[in-house]
Amino acid sequence: MIAGPGCGRCQATEKVVREVVVEQGVDAVVAHVYDVSEYAKLGVMLTPAVLIDGKIVFAGRVPTAGEVQRAILGVG
Asked: Hey, where are the domains in the chain?
């Protein structure tokens, strides 16, 4: 899940995550939560944020494709 208001960095983060999911053939649903109150409930304080299985794995920056790949595949 991507959490953020839809700014350029949020859009870039969503693009990276979607590309990695497709490239790696991961069976995942990529959703984007735009509502501040909703992602605040999830503990997100900095955006863009990436959550995997409810856990914040990146926040406040656009992660690289390699970082997302490692996080999704549980490597590293």
From this structure: 2-73
Band (18; pLDDT cuts 50, 70, 90)? very high
From the candidate CATH numbers 3.90.1640.10, 3.40.30.10, 3.40.50.720, 3.40.50.410, the one assigned to the domain spanning 2-73: 3.40.30.10
Q: Which two tokens stand for residue 18?
A: 């979607």
Nearest-angstrom CA–CA distance, 67 and 45:
20
Q: Quickly state the pLDDT bin for 75 (edges 50, 70, 90).
A: low
pLDDT of residue 74: 84
Strands (DSSP E) contained in the chain are: 2-3, 32-33, 49-52, 55-59
- Enter the pTM of the model: 0.92
